[in-house]
Design a protein that fits this description.
378 residues; alpha/beta; Rossmann fold; 5-stranded parallel sheet; 38% helix
Length: 378
């Protein structure tokens, strides 16, 4: 059970120890704190995942107000190939990340000092790409083991190597290799803010796979959030093997550890139960003091014995079907990828070749430093 923020996200400047380098740290100094520090990030944010969220978390820890620029479909198609999600979908996904204060729609693909001046930003934070022509630049740690390229690859490969019970460290690039993510308690703590339910909160329970956490999930959670004046939303995440039982194929695309972080990053979520039971039982409802159980308009799969997993909340009269107005599913996203398979495969190959070149350059630079240190000793 992982507690998340649910009313207003509190900025924790102490989280900045993994958030960046000296410029970011200086931005949070007592002298700088006399005014609000505005931080700029930008990107495609296509198929938003916990790697994107982690970048934005680190960026927010470097200042007070986070502005995120999101590129248009045409700019992405021009520079990288076709995006999986439309720009309107990507705008809404980024807005739903709890560390984001403001987004700029149609942000320029290349960030300049002029961009920072236009949006009154103190500095720009990025995770390792090269599209930045500004000295006001701070790097943050890139999250290894996940990228849009990686997730697209999982869908095209149709394997189960990414599931949490299968260890697979294959992959040429540490950023795009399949299933290289290793969960740690520290990472969960960084994503969760640990708020308990408060008096007067309406405790709402929802459960599912929440695979490839997407705009359909966001619209559903936003609709659930609007059901109460003070909602406290608990999301129960099923283990990989449970999801595979009722979804089949190579689902889930993201393993339970990855799905945990993706859901925790959503501003509408208060708490996450990792490995929630498939059936919503009386014990579960009593334990969390649940007032309301919600499910979308998607199919309710039966339990292993063929029983209704929502029988108990249905009996108690607390089950609510919520229509988010969005019919997008994980299956539909996979179909988008398959439809443009050749284009996405070409994009993936180009991206991995580029990252391998970066890694080789980093290794050469490190070898040169080692030689210089050895010569200095002599």
């Amino acid at each position: 059970m992982i507690k998340n923020g649910h009313h207003h996200h509190q900025v924790n400047t102490a989280a900045g120890k993994d958030a960046g380098t000296t410029p970011g740290a200086a931005a949070c100094s007592p002298e700088k704190r006399r005014r609000r520090i505005r931080v700029w990030c930008d990107g495609c944010y296509d198929m938003v995942h916990y790697g994107h969220s982690n970048q934005l978390r680190q960026a927010k820890a470097m200042g007070d107000y986070l502005i995120v620029g999101v590129h248009t479909d045409s700019e992405i198609a021009k520079h990288k190939g076709p995006p999986v999600f439309t720009q309107e979908e990507r705008y809404k996904m980024v807005r739903a990340i709890k560390w984001v204060d403001e987004i700029v729609e149609g942000a320029p693909y290349v960030t300049t000092l002029g961009t920072l001046d236009k949006y009154n930003s103190d500095f720009c934070v990025h995770g390792g790409t090269e599209r930045y022509y500004t000295m006001s630049l701070v790097k943050c740690k890139r999250t290894q083991g996940v990228s849009t390229t990686d997730l697209v690859g999982r869908m095209l490969l149709m394997t189960k190597a990414h599931h949490s019970n299968i260890v697979s460290m294959k992959g040429h690039s540490p950023w795009t290799g399949v299933s290289q993510f290793l969960q740690t308690s520290q990472k969960i703590i960084q994503f969760a803010s640990g708020q308990e339910p408060q008096p007067g909160d309406t405790i709402i329970y929802v459960a599912g796979a929440f695979d490839l956490f997407h705009i359909g999930h966001v619209d559903f959670l936003e609709a659930v959030h609007k059901l109460a004046q003070k909602p406290y939303i608990i999301v129960g995440l099923h283990f990989d093997q449970e999801v595979n039982r009722y979804k089949g194929k190579n689902y889930p695309i993201m393993n339970v550890h990855e799905r945990t972080l993706s859901v925790l990053a959503c501003r509408y979520v208060s708490e996450v139960v990792i490995g929630a039971p498939f059936a919503v039982t009386k014990d579960l409802l009593d334990h969390f003091k649940v007032d309301l159980v919600c499910h979308g308009k998607t199919e309710i799969y039966p339990d292993k014995d063929g029983s209704d997993p929502y029988a108990e909340p249905r009996r108690k009269g607390i089950l609510r079907t919520v229509d988010s107005g969005n019919s997008l599913t994980t299956d539909a996203i996979v179909q988008r990828i398959i439809k443009n398979r050749l284009q996405f495969e070409a994009r993936n190959q180009k991206k991995e070749a580029k990252e391998i070149a970066v890694i080789q350059a980093m290794k050469r630079k490190e070898e040169e430093k080692t030689k210089e240190r050895a010569q200095a000793v002599l």
